[in-house]
Write a structure and sequence with these properties.
With 1229 residues, this protein is of the alpha+beta class. It is built from 44 helices and 36 strands. Strands 20-17-16-29-28-27-26-25-24-23 form a ten-stranded mixed beta sheet, with helices on both faces. Strands 14-36-35-34-15-30-33-32-31 form a nine-stranded mixed beta sheet, sandwiched between helices. Strands 3-2-4-13-5-11 form a six-stranded antiparallel beta sheet. The radius of gyration is 37 Å and the shape is elongated.
Length: 1229
């Protein structure tokens, strides 16, 4: 309890300061289901009474997705900036410098540069957040018609309030969450597209209450009176509980079929009337949103930890020098006899000396590092934006890097979380193939699959659809073809709509895109479904119109995996038509009369191997007496109060038996171009892909096979458990099984790895990550107090050499899997699998899954990619968010860190731009640390020679110019233009991406190595210089060597040394690299004498008076420039040679392949592997096949049975209103 109290205290303070955004506060994910509303759980809305509604505490409809607000910008921005330890350290140093007589350098030498850095960051943040503010303003300024008196007037979305009656027209988004009253369609039906909510682009049907369906004009709506009692705002997209009470006292229930959610779009319906129940941030869409996060990269968190290390080094050096000063004071009489300093003050002086030396050595931590990083990242982002390989010409969409601060994170991604619809697929279903009576047909027959007759007289291969049309007339299977086509034309829940501009054109509206594809496909075969009535459907074929009476529909659900319809044929007979998954159809076939089972199974195997979605079709004749008896059973089941669906399923089982197989269909869910190859390449790069989709399980599995996420050799673990305990037991059982299967493997991901020191160092790193991530003190205490036995350590870099597994879990089970006592079991099991698919998940669940991996897999970098508003939560939860600028709008792209037009562009974004960005930033950071430590450690070595007095050897303004002028271009050249290998090689060898995943170029070991190298180089050049030239030494001109002569000589040697170090560090020499190397040296040689001549004249740097003349006329100076900088680099060159020759890494080999253009014979091996895989694929029986169903699981039959396409739709809403006004005018006239 104390933990929660302390957490709430910290949280409340952060909320008051605006650090935590309260706009997105919401409770835990609701589990859904119908519950009885208590009085405390409901809100009351008065219809057509704005005054009563205005006194209630309802949220406004204006939304804001910005990172900052006017009130919170200052606190939130400063909190973020000073969470960077470098900025915090320099703020401390700047404050100490203000103490009189303490600083050996200029008082404002730190605060002024720091203020410039902070101001530049503020401008950048405001510029990026202003884009979000403009997008919000555009949304809030959108217009919708609202009822005002007895007419509709335009009102901005932000002005819409709870209780308003609004009119939404075709193609418009709903401005808030609405209760549907009436529509232009019969019986208050309407079609909506919810792609922004759940990712599904297929249309869904909503229906208003019969009691309000007659409200077809503004005057009728304006006289409606009553109250709506609604549930409180929540984040459950698929449930709703409420009641509508009319003025006369009649109360009717409201359910999700009347709810129109913000973010959904009205489609193929001229208009609807609805009453607003939830607005703004209380809508279900915004309840599933999360606040824009403050993201930091893994590299930045490492920099923060290493700045702490350098601070400890700085404190150690300062303390050592202060102790040297103290020792000198105690053992020498100089201070007491000459300076008259009392020894009683030596204790105070000791601490003042520590501060003095901290100021003197403060640039061990480079202030310019942050600015240089931001500059380079911005330019790298511009390179991404201008990459023509990621430009999508059909929609004129370039790649856009919206958050430049995360570019290096693109080179270290371990997990990709992807939406399915619109991201992997185009959501375009095409009827490609079918098998009827054992004969295979295809729309387009490949040359290698054309039908041939073998030696035994059997037909093998595919015929085209033209042959199918001919066979329907003359072939011996003509009667089977007729039943096959009739089944597709009548056994469905599709609604035909005639195009108003072209009455001969029929548009099929379906909750399942698969069904629409099947009905459209059979239309091409001559069976034209055109009319639906409540109890019949009409189909044109063979030149006549045939009417089929629909007696009953047994609906599809995920348990049955099939749907059936009892149809009275035009000749009066009754047939049961059924379609579904092959596993459920085959086991219900009759023992006799099925002649095509074996041939059909072979064709199903072929379709499955092609990644197509299959359905088996069958029928049976039903006698009048059997139907009458079954109808009574069905009617009793339909009126059951408890477990109605289970009873209906049992009734359907009674008649769905003894079936005769007709054949099967194959539908292609068209993937985006290049998706399978991209997924394969990313997997080769060591990236794990998890698909999080709102689609049904079977649909997602089908796509998994199509895009090669799921493969033949994978064992698929399907988790669909009904409760918490069942889910936990199932996951634990499967986890134990996988661990046993891995017993012979070298690794075990579930156990802590390494020695005691390794685990201790890991905890120190975790503590540093906590500081970087700004988590609460409570979490930090729990982290340190966690025992080794209870620690779960999942190492993302371990390789599992065992049978591949894939995990598939549905949304309801995922709710239980994300509970505190189950989630780590689920995570461990999922990380042991090659692929993970989460189905029917809500937007909030997507974000929770991403957060689970992000927070519990050690060192893992996550990337989320999606294209709809339902993906915004996970995009913001991941380390890097990528938005697809697709058919579902720009919500995801606007909220993402990077926006691209196609999933396939992710390959170059990560492997090339990400790989380059990571290596470039690694070199830049290490080099910046190196050059600063090398220069400013000279001050430390000099302290031994000046009696630890705090005297500086360098002139102050020269020190200030070191990072901003003379060593500025070198790190910029490394950060922008360096390529450790070419783009072609990165694409050909995706395994190189693992260098970034394992932090090969920038980690604690490389940092310590570069730091040690800096110590050694600074020591060598100082002592070489001391041997060469000492103070008071007589020069050839007769003048003495001064401290400033030595200082500027050392300064020049250091510039040459660090420039040569940049030259041997660079992997690619471009024109800018040459300018940065040669130009920096030339700039120093030319600018130093000019400055040292002018500055003393204005009393700016009097110490430098006459120094250029002494330096440039001294043979010692010129000799030292050619000898001393080279000596420390001999070791570096030898080490580089040794690594490449005797300890070569993978990228060294690739660099040689690139440099010498060595041919690669891997393509031949790839062809061989493909051939072997194809043989194994043919020899092996596929474990599971997907089937083409993704319609809503319940309620469709009732809606369809109420629909009549022969009924004339209500005309435009203003017609009746206008005609009434005209009549009144004529009467008055």
């Amino acid at each position: 309890m104390a933990e929660y109290e302390s957490e709430s205290l910290l949280t409340s303070i952060q909320k008051r300061l605006g650090i935590i955004d309260t706009r997105y506060d919401s409770g835990p994910q609701t589990k859904g289901g119908r519950v009885r509303l208590q009085d405390a759980e409901q809100r009351t809305i008065v219809i057509n009474d704005a005054v009563k509604n205005s006194v209630r505490d309802f949220c406004g409809n204006s939304i804001s997705t910005t990172k900052y607000t006017v009130a919170t910008f200052l606190f939130k921005f400063l909190y973020e900036q000073f969470s960077r330890y470098a900025n915090l350290f320099f703020l401390f140093i700047g404050c100490v410098q203000q103490v009189p007589n303490l600083s050996p350098v200029n008082r404002f030498g730190t605060l002024v540069p720091l203020a410039i850095v902070i101001f530049a960051s503020a401008v950048k943040e405001l510029a990026e957040d202003s884009k979000r503010a403009r997008a919000d303003a555009n949304v809030n300024a959108s217009k919708v018609k609202t009822l005002n008196g007895s007419q509709f007037v335009d009102k901005k979305w932000k002005d819409v309030v709870v209780g308003d009656v609004v009119r939404v027209e075709n193609g418009q988004f709903f401005p808030a969450d609405l209760i549907l009253l009436s529509s232009s369609e019969p019986d208050a039906l309407c079609y909506i597209e919810t792609s922004n909510l759940d990712g599904e682009t297929n249309l869904k049907i909503r229906q208003g209450l019969p009691e309000t369906a007659h409200l077809l004009d503004p005057e009728a709506v304006s006289i409606l009176s009553g109250t709506i009692k609604s549930e409180h705002p929540n984040n459950s997209l698929y449930t709703y509980e409420g009641t509508l009470t009319f003025l006369g006292g009649k109360t009717v229930p409201l359910d999700p079929s009347q709810l129109l959610l913000r973010g959904a779009m009205l489609r193929n319906t001229r208009w609807v009337y609805g009453i607003v129940v939830f607005t703004g941030h209380e809508t279900k869409l915004m309840k599933n949103a999360t606040s824009p996060p403050i993201k930091s990269t893994k590299v930045e968190r490492s920099v923060n930890r290493q700045i702490i290390f350098l601070f400890v080094v700085l404190m150690t050096l300062s303390t050592l020098c202060a102790m040297g000063s103290l020792l000198r004071t105690l053992t020498s009489n100089f201070e007491t006899d000459i300076l008259k300093i009392q020894k009683s003050f030596v204790a105070v002086q000791f601490f003042l000396d520590i501060l003095t030396f901290m100021i003197l050595f403060n640039n061990l931590i480079p202030l310019s590092l942050i600015v240089t990083m931001e500059l380079v990242k911005y330019y790298i982002a511009s390179l991404i934006n201008s990459d023509l390989d990621m430009y999508y010409e059909p929609s004129d969409t370039p790649a856009t890097c919206r958050t430049s601060s995360l570019v290096e994170e693109l080179g270290q991604v371990d997990f990709i979380f992807s939406d399915k619809t619109g991201t992997l697929t185009c959501n375009i279903m095409e009827f490609k193939m079918c098998t009827i009576a054992g004969i295979a047909y295809a729309e387009v027959v490949p040359d290698d699959k054309k039908a041939i007759v073998d030696a035994a007289g059997r037909v093998e291969g595919y015929f085209d659809f033209k042959t199918l049309l001919r066979n329907a007339e003359t072939h011996e299977s003509a009667h089977v073809i007729a039943d096959f086509c009739t089944l597709l034309a009548v056994c469905h829940t599709v609604i035909p709509e005639r195009d108003e501009t072209d009455p001969n054109k029929i548009l099929y509206q379906a909750s399942s895109p698969d069904e629409a594809a099947l009905v459209s496909g059979v239309q091409l075969l001559g069976y034209n479904f055109h009319t639906r009535r409540p109890k019949s459907v009409s189909v044109d074929h063979s030149g006549y119109t045939h009417e089929y009476e629909v007696l009953n529909i047994n609906e599809f659900n995920s348990t049955r995996k099939r749907m059936s319809a009892l149809i009275r044929m035009p000749d009066g007979t009754i047939k049961l038509y059924i379609k579904g998954a092959d596993t459920v159809i085959m086991e219900r076939l009759s023992k006799q009369g099925n002649l095509f089972v074996d041939a059909t199974m072979v064709h199903l195997e072929d379709y499955a191997n092609e990644g197509l979605r299959t359905l088996c079709l069958a029928y049976r004749d039903v006698s009048e007496s059997e139907y009458a008896e079954w109808s009574r059973i069905y009617d009793r089941a339909a009126t059951t109060i408890n477990n109605r669906q289970d009873v209906l399923d049992q009734a359907a089982e009674l008649i769905e038996r003894d079936l005769i197989l007709l054949g099967a269909t194959a539908i292609e869910d068209k993937l985006q171009d290049g998706v399978p190859d991209t997924i394969h390449t990313l997997a080769t790069a060591g990236i794990k892909l998890w698909v999080l989709t709102g689609d049904r399980q079977e649909t997602a599995i089908n796509i998994g096979f199509s895009c090669k996420l799921l493969t033949e050799e994978m064992t698929i673990i399907v988790c669909n458990e009904p409760g918490h305990i069942d889910t936990k037991m199932f996951l634990q059982e499967k986890l134990d099984y996988l661990k046993k299967a891995m017993a012979a493997s070298e690794t075990d991901l579930s156990q802590p790895q390494g020695s005691f020191m390794d685990n201790l160092f890991r905890r120190i790193e975790k503590a540093g990550e906590w500081l970087a991530d700004r988590r609460s003190l409570t979490n930090f205490v729990s982290l340190l107090s966690r025992s080794k036995e209870n620690e779960l350590f999942i190492d993302k870099d371990r390789v599992i050499d065992s049978e591949p597994f894939a995990l598939v879990i549905d949304g309801r089970t995922l709710e239980y899997a994300l509970e505190p006592d189950v989630r780590l079991i689920f995570l461990e099991l999922a990380c042991l699998c090659k692929a993970v698919i989460c189905c029917r998940v809500s937007p909030l669940q997507k974000a929770l899954v991403v957060g689970l991996v992000k927070n519990n897999v050690d060192g893992a970098i996550t990337l989320a990619i999606g294209d709809g508003a339902n993906d915004v939560g996970m995009i913001q939860a991941a380390h890097v968010g990528v938005g697809i600028s697709g058919m579902e709008g720009l919500q995801a792209a606007r909220s993402a860190d990077v926006a691209i037009a196609q999933f396939r562009y992710l390959q170059k974004l990560l492997l090339v731009h990400g790989g380059w960005a990571y290596t470039r930033m690694s070199k830049l950071i290490l080099y910046c640390f190196y050059k600063n430590i090398t220069l400013y450690l000279i001050q430390f070595w000099f302290a031994f020679d000046n009696g630890f007095s705090g005297q500086t050897i360098f002139e102050s303004w020269m020190q200030s110019c070191y990072n901003v002028m003379f060593t500025l271009l070198q790190p910029v050249a490394l950060g922008i233009f360096d390529q450790f290998v070419s783009a072609r090689m990165l694409d050909r060898y995706p395994q190189l991406y693992r260098l970034g995943q394992r932090s090969e170029f920038y980690n604690n070991k490389t940092f310590l190595f570069w730091t040690f190298n800096s110590f050694m180089h600074s020591f060598l050049i100082y002592w070489f210089m001391k041997i060469t030239c000492t103070e008071s030494q007589m020069l050839g001109s007769g003048k003495d060597v001064s401290i400033w002569f030595i200082g500027m000589n050392l300064y020049t040697i250091d510039i040459i040394l660090v420039t040569l170090k940049a030259a041997i560090t660079a992997s690619t020499w471009t024109w800018f690299t040459k300018i940065s190397v040669l130009g920096s040296l030339a700039a120093w040689i030319v600018l130093f004498p000019a400055y040292a001549t002018v500055a003393p004249l204005i009393n700016l740097s009097p110490e430098l008076y006459g120094i250029p003349e002494l330096l440039y006329t001294s043979a010692t100076f010129w000799a030292s420039l050619f000898i001393i900088p080279v000596l420390p680099l001999i070791r570096d060159l030898f080490w580089k040679y040794y690594k490449r020759t005797y300890w070569a890494r993978s990228y060294h080999i690739i660099q040689e392949i690139q440099a010498y253009n060595i041919p690669d014979y891997r393509p031949r091996m790839e062809w061989f592997k493909k051939a072997v895989y194809k043989v194994r694929q043919i020899q092996r029986l596929k474990r599971s096949r997907g089937f083409a169903f993704s319609q809503t699981e319940s309620g469709q039959a009732n809606l369809i049975r109420n629909y009549d396409t022969t009924v004339r739709k209500p005309r435009f809403v203003f017609v009746s209103f206008f005609s009434r006004r005209v009549t009144d005018f004529l009467h008055r006239g």
